[in-house]
Amino acid sequence: MTRDELIQALIPERVRLVSAYQIPDATGMVKLDAMENPYRWPQSLLDDLATRLADCALNRYPDSHADLIRAPLAQWMQIPETLDLLFGNGSDEIIGLLISTLIGTGRSVCAPDPSFVMFQVLANQYSVPFRALPLDSEFDIDVDGWMDGLMTADPALIFVPQPNNPTGNLFSKDRLAQIVESTQALIVIDEAYTAFTDADYLDWAKCYPNVVVMRTLSKVGLAGSRFGMLIGHPEWIVEFDKIRLPYNINAMSQTAVQFALEHASILEEQSGLIRQERTRLSKRLSKRGFSVWHSEANFVVIDCGVHVARDLFEGLKQHQILVKCLDGSHPRLTNTLRLTVGTPDESDVLLSALDQLVSR
Question: E strands of 52-183, at which residues?
């Protein structure tokens, strides 16, 4: 057989017919597309971290459970003692791990629509049925629509981002409680942006038998470490740990995270600066005529109104600024851009470029 014939025979059609997840080249750009923390650590701390990393035993496998991280992380995040943690190579690995438990069961996974694209991408990757749940005109939970959808889909897993990506808003706590209390599915509350909102659902993981919480350190300044976590009752964690790949958190990531937790006040300070800049940026965008959606995350979404989002996106790239064009990704995101909150200087560069583009 030829190579092409072998690929046709061995690679499932569901893989061959899709494209790989694309990450745009951001070399030399003001990078405002991926919800990263724009601030680096002080040079003195980077030097200390370099010394610590130099001591990593790269000839040995890392601690399989990253035990040195557990206590300081639980203390910093104020995780109740009755809950346990499972670590993943970013939240993506945890999402995939949870969905993979459903392979062959016939059970489905649900998530809001629109929401984080990887929920559906990974469900499709594992051939697990996916059902999108409708949001109302304010991008909040449509309770009746969700109830109907859950009855039809009979899911084992429901992912609920708080706040939601890409819309940036929090769902109503009362509406979410109705869903939690009405289903036997496991509710995974994704708190990827917890540093930029006052909402906190850790108590729900303690009080509700069908709730776990997922978090990440990517948004607070450690995107390069790829470190995510699942927080829940030990009886949930012990089951999911059975299918977690051993040594999934490498030694250098463990060292970097441990070091960061020793200096967590810097992460908190930087998150506070981002929240302040989110307010400033939103006001200035509004003054320029853009409709700015309320955000509890480290990004804002703008409706470009009389301007064409795709034209602005391409124009910003010509100014060496990379943002996320949401236009075309979902019918309710037509003519919108998602802007990561950067430093004040980066915001000023962005605003100046927008001023030039809209005045043409």
Answer: 84-89, 108-113, 130-134, 155-161
Going by C-beta distance under 8 Å and a sequence separation of 6 or more, which residues neighbour residue 170?
A: 162, 163, 164, 197, 199, 296
pLDDT digits (tens, 9 = 90+) for 175-226: 999 999 999 999 999 999 999 999 999 999 999 999 999 999 999 999 999 9
How many Cβ atoms are within 10 Å of 277's Cβ, its own excluded?
Answer: 18
Task: Compute the distance between CA of residue 196 and CA of residue 165 in angstroms, rounded to an integer.
Answer: 13
Cα(235)–Cα(61) distance, integer angstroms: 27
Among residues 273, 242, 267, which one has the least CA distance to residue 341? Answer: 273
Alpha helices in 169-300 (DSSP H): 173-182, 202-207, 234-241, 251-262, 264-287
Give the angle 277-219-234 at the CA atoms, nearest 5°. 135
70 and 137: one domain?
yes
Identify the domain containing residue 211 by its residue range: 57-264
At residue 140, the pLDDT reads 98
In degrees, to the nearest 5, what angle opens at C-alpha 163 toward C-alphas 102 and 161? 0
State how beta strands 30-31 and 321-322 pair: parallel
Verify that 61 and 156 share a domain, yes or no.
Answer: yes
Cβ neighbours around 138 below 10 Å, total: 12
Share above pLDDT 90 across residues of the chain, in percent, rounded to a whole number: 94
In a domain, 82, yes or no: yes
Strand 291-292 vs strand 299-303: parallel, antiparallel, or unpaired?
Answer: antiparallel
Q: Which of 264, 295, 321 is the last residue of a domain?
A: 264
